[in-house]
Design a protein that fits this description.
heterotrimer; A mainly alpha; B alpha+beta; C alpha/beta; A: mainly alpha; B: 3-methyladenine DNA Glycosylase II, Chain A, domain 3; two-stranded antiparallel sheet; 33% helix
Chain lengths: 333, 287, 444
């Protein structure tokens, strides 16, 4: 019996699920949406995605190697996911240097300063996106028009997003029904035929990815479903009150970043609550804030802000929303 | 344009003034009357909040000091006589002389000396390993090597030696706060009297088994033979549970016991003959 | 209709490699080492001297106090020595070492295999017999059976639940017992029912043992008040509180005992031991142990004497495979890893599992990503990520508020964690300290 045995406390088995596999699962779930944006926006989408992913991974590696002097942990795949999501949240004609700045803010500021994976209070990709939106408002809101696969990049033909058209039009006193004429049909919106950030347009591809993640048990249904339901109910009420001033719920669900936000951004493990009840509160919060910003805010789109605002409530939700304990309390002394 | 600037300045000034007035009254209302000497004493203390004095931080210790009538039993191990002297001046009391101490790791169970009989693969924590089983070697008293003591040290005075898999104490940085002593689930670390030039003689073993099993588990274990006790002229060595113990306050560093030990469990450190490798228990033991 | 508990749970690979291997009676070893503490509670006190001749079934260590059990000699022979040995926990304790000669049993034991169905003993006599025969819970917790059978004054018990779940992967000893000794087990159940004074007993069996379910359902027709309840496969269904919830819908309160909701739970193995003790007057000195592992040559279920070295069991299963990196005493989820295999089998040893090297090392620990999978896996509704950190950082008051003491250490959290964090290691540490603190508070 020459074997020197390993000894550890129980359990002596671990599931096959690892952080790396979960991240890979998210990447797979993002693939259909990526394919859709390459289909609609062409080469620009590929360049933006590559630059974003490579610079996110590089920033994380360099910070860990040279500033923190710890063992680089880029192999966990979280930087790749952040890079993909950052790319999904910017227009496909964004110049390379702006994307790199976005990556530095996402990983460097929003993630590594808080201690890296697992410790960031805000979704890194969204922090990057919002930083860019505020710093480079022109570049960040000149949306290329989908035109089938093409080789244009920063010189792509641009136009407004359906939400911007709607928001602008309502402010100018135009009726919703008239504005609807100017934007693609609901079916086209569902397939993603509209201007917008490169990854947010194709609702069908995003839903496909979401279903995959739920099937793989990477996420639960709670967050995406509550967000979408809240948006639908809230805008539905507004629409019922005055259909000339407010767009219909389906329009709200299919446009802007709501699908991407609800399925991929809000469900980020680190910055979302851990209990089902907490997730539902969080989802309702995001839905309500999104509609508030869209309807009465200065920006035509509010998902990013809504998620970041609700991110800040997550520690509170984790602290006070507890899972139901087994067995009721008894006094024992 | 200039009116906007002026208006802004006026508004902010008014707000500031209002806040200042509110704060002043709040501060008056909720003022806590406290002995002002507590603050002075706190400032004189090192401010490490290490708990080495036995209180939950420097301020708590300062409160105790101010309330006390004598300094008997009260000592800041970090600041030592110098700090206590300052505090004594502030409070106008007599300082009590306390021998400076240093932490010593009483285990020499390197992989060479104590053969590994299993590999610990649980959470890297001595407390977890200790509650799980006897440890990686045949010795159920020795160092577990997970470094709870190093994690507890607030003065950067310890590190884990990757070769010996034992903690090493840097004498010059150790302030004898006792955090490592508390952290060690096996009570291996002891606070001993700090001698001149950091010289020490101690039994580097805490195995309380009988000679045979102890020796089987570790080559340099104390086997409880008692030879050192017989040779000690100062009655500094006692035997209990098959284990020799040298009282550092009675020991006069005469070096008579070390050659007597058949297993090399007694270590001499910092003495001229073996000064080639200072403060390295493992190396000293190989000789 | 398959029942189960509602909250949490995981589905580890079952790996029941030995489910179709009949129980093999292992020959009496040449020497046995019988530790005096094989149960929860005070260690027993040896009552034999060195050199004394003993018979199998003879009392060799007397229970000390109420929460303790008698220890009997598992073989006939001579007491070689009474010494301290390393037991399965890795620490040293007192044990009686006996050299075996022949296999002579104490005369009062009925060694025939004939089934004795009629229960002649009274309620008190049954409990007394269990106490004398040194019975403990055979599911792994090894709590003295006679205490569990004594319903505390002021409490009422109306139902007995028999744990035939065996939700731990790999283990099959209870499964084989139900198949091969079904009638004996059911008689044992009837005896326990009589001792508790209850009319109903439910045997909970997971659906991955359909042969045991049909066999016991068939046999139970001849026994009054015993029904078999098939259960969905889900770990930790064998946990007392989970099993009660699954079978009856009753929820044992936090910090309470099953008897608080009128239920007592006993293991299948214990029921068999009760049968043997009460009907055959045979003390507990042998048990069924599953010896298994993916690369083990001849895995199987063995009936062995207590005190047999684990090495002898491993030899019986074809020897330890060369690639073995870890040997676990008990199931893979809650069992204890052995540092050395030269330790004796005790009353609580339900299995010996040999893991090949690639499955015996824990994966690299990564940072917590707050996925919440541990919370959803926890059958007690706790937040393992939180209480683990509280245990690690020694924040015991907070840990107590977060119900760290409700943790039953099933390991579902650490199993499911994608970051492979040692959650349970620190929870266990914190729980032990919190329980100690609570006890000190009571005594103060």
């Amino acid at each position: 019996m020459s074997n020197i045995l390993n000894v550890s406390p129980s359990p002596h088995q671990q599931s096959a699920e690892t952080t790396r596999k979960l991240m890979l699962g998210v990447v797979i779930a993002l693939a259909p949406a990526l394919a859709a944006s390459v289909w609609y926006f062409g080469l620009g989408a590929i360049i933006v995605t590559l630059v974003s992913v490579v610079s996110c991974v590089a920033v994380e590696y360099l910070i860990q190697k040279f500033i923190l002097k710890t063992k680089p942990s880029v192999s966990d795949g979280s930087a790749i996911v952040t890079g993909l999501l950052l790319a999904f949240n910017v227009p496909s004609n964004l110049p390379v240097h702006i994307i790199i700045i976005g990556a530095i803010v996402s990983i460097g500021v929003a993630k590594m300063t808080f201690g890296g994976l697992g410790n960031n209070p805000f979704n890194p990709a969204l922090v990057g996106r919002v930083f860019l939106l505020i710093s480079f408002p022109v570049q960040m809101t000149s949306w290329p028009v989908p035109s089938g696969f093409n080789t244009g990049y920063t010189d792509a033909v641009t136009g407004a997003t359906p939400l911007a058209i709607m928001s602008e039009g309502i402010k100018n006193g135009e009726a919703v029904s008239a504005l609807m004429e100017k934007i693609p049909s609901h079916m086209q919106l569902f397939y993603g035929y509209m201007g917008g950030s490169m990854g947010e347009i194709a609702a069908v591809a995003l839903i496909l990815g979401g279903l995959y993640m739920i099937w793989r048990k990477i996420i639960t249904w709670h967050i995406p479903v509550t967000i979408l339901l809240t948006v639908a109910v809230f805008t539905g009420i507004l629409w019922a009150v005055d259909p000339t001033k407010y767009a219909d719920p389906l329009f709200h669900l299919l446009t802007g970043g709501i699908m991407l936000g609800a399925i991929f951004m809000a469900t980020d493990y680190v910055t979302s609550p851990m209990t089902a009840k907490g997730m539902i509160i969080y989802g309702i919060g995001i839905g309500v804030i999104t509609v508030l910003i869209r309807t009465w805010g200065a920006y035509p789109e509010g998902v990013s802000f809504a998620i970041l605002i609700m991110n800040s409530f997550v520690p509170l939700l984790n602290m006070y929303i507890k899972p139901k304990r087994f067995g009721k309390e008894v006094k024992h002394g | 344009m200039s009116s906007t600037v002026l208006l802004t300045i006026a508004m902010l000034s008014a707000l500031g003034l209002l806040a200042a007035i509110i704060l002043y009254f709040v501060a008056q209302k909720f003022r806590v009357v406290e002995d002002p000497r507590i603050d002075t004493v706190t400032e004189a203390l090192p401010g490490a909040n290490c708990g080495g004095c036995g209180y939950t931080g420097c301020r708590a210790f300062a409160e105790t000091l101010v309330k006390s009538t004598s300094f008997e039993g009260l000592n800041c191990p970090v600041g030592g006589a110098e700090t206590m002297g300052k505090v004594a001046v502030i409070l106008d009391r007599q300082p009590v002389a306390v021998e400076p101490k240093v932490a010593v790791v009483r285990c020499n169970g390197t992989p060479d000396n104590a053969t590994r009989t299993s590999y610990y693969d649980g959470a890297v924590s001595c407390r977890v390993a200790h509650s799980l089983y006897g440890g990686q070697t045949g010795c159920q008293y020795g160092c577990l090597g997970c470094g709870d003591c190093v994690a507890a040290c607030k003065f950067d005075a310890m590190y884990m030696d990757p070769v010996t898999q034992l903690p090493v104490i840097l004498d010059e940085k150790c302030v004898a706060c006792g955090a490592c002593v508390k952290a060690c689930p096996r009570s291996i670390i002891e606070l001993r009297k700090r001698n001149k030039k950091d010289r020490k003689i101690y039994v580097s073993c805490v195995n309380r088994d009988k000679g045979g099993p102890a020796r089987k588990a570790c080559k340099v274990a104390c086997i409880g033979c008692g030879k050192c006790m017989k040779v000690c002229p100062y009655e500094a060595i006692t035997m209990e549970n098959n284990l020799a113990f040298i009282d550092s306050f009675k020991c006069r560093l005469c070096r008579k016991c070390e050659p007597e030990c058949p297993t090399g469990a007694i270590l001499e450190i910092g003495f001229p003959v073996k000064e080639a490798k200072p403060a390295e228990p493992a190396d000293a033991a190989v000789n | 209709m398959l029942k189960t508990f509602p909250k949490g749970g995981i589905h580890p690979p079952e790996n029941k490699l030995t489910a179709d291997r009949p129980i093999v009676i292992l020959p009496v070893p040449s020497q046995v080492t019988v530790p005096v503490s094989q149960h929860i509670g005070a260690p027993a006190v040896p009552v034999v001297e060195k050199g004394a001749a003993v018979k199998a079934g003879q009392l060799i260590a007397q229970a000390k106090g109420f929460v303790s059990t008698n220890i009997h000699s598992p073989v006939s022979g001579k007491v070689n020595k009474i010494d301290t040995v390393v037991d399965t926990t890795g620490y040293k304790q007192t044990a009686v070492v006996i050299d075996a000669e022949g296999d002579e049993w104490v005369e009062t034991i009925d060694r025939s295999a004939a089934l004795v169905k009629e229960i002649t003993l009274s309620r008190e006599q049954i409990i007394e017999r269990c106490q004398q025969c040194g019975l403990v819970g055979m599911g792994g917790a090894t709590f003295p059976t006679h205490i569990k059978l004594t319903v505390p004054a002021g409490k009422k018990c109306d139902m007995l639940i028999i744990n035939g779940v065996e939700c731990e992967p790999y283990l099959t000893s209870d499964h084989r017992l139900m198949l091969e000794k079904g009638a004996e087990v059911l008689t044992g159940v009837s005896i326990i029912m009589k001792a508790l004074g209850v009319e109903n007993a439910v045997i909970g069996i997971e659906a991955n043992k359909p042969d045991a379910i049909s066999q016991l359902t068939e046999l139970a027709k001849d026994f009054k008040g015993i029904t078999v309840q098939p259960l969905k496969v889900k770990y930790p269904q064998g946990g007392e509180k989970q099993l009660i919830k699954a079978c009856t819908g009753r929820e044992v309160p936090s910090g309470g005992l099953p008897v608080d909701v009128g239920v007592v739970v006993q293991n299948v193995g214990t029921s068999f031991a009760v049968y043997e003790a009460v009907q055959k007057n045979k003390p507990l000195f042998e048990r069924v142990v599953t010896v298994t592992g993916k690369s083990v040559k001849n895995p199987g279920n063995f009936m062995v004497r207590v005190g047999t070295p684990v090495t002898a069991l491993i030899e019986a299963a074809g020897g330890m495979p060369d690639d073995t990196g870890k040997v676990v005493n008990g199931g893979p989820m809650m069992g204890k890893a052995l540092a050395i295999t030269d330790v004796p089998v005790t009353k609580g040893t339900s299995g010996i599992i040999m893991f090949p090297a690639d499955a015996s090392k824990r994966a690299e620990v990564m940072p917590c990503i707050r996925c919440g999978k541990c919370s959803s896996a926890c059958a007690m509704g706790l937040e393992p990520w939180l209480i683990s950190v509280l245990g690690q950082k020694a924040m015991y008051e907070k840990a107590e508020q977060e119900k760290i003491t409700d943790c039953m250490e099933c390991g579902a959290c650490a199993y499911t964690c994608p970051a492979k964090r040692p959650l349970l290691d620190y929870i266990r540490l914190g729980k032990a300290t919190v329980i100690r603190m609570a006890r000190e508070r009571v005594t103060k």
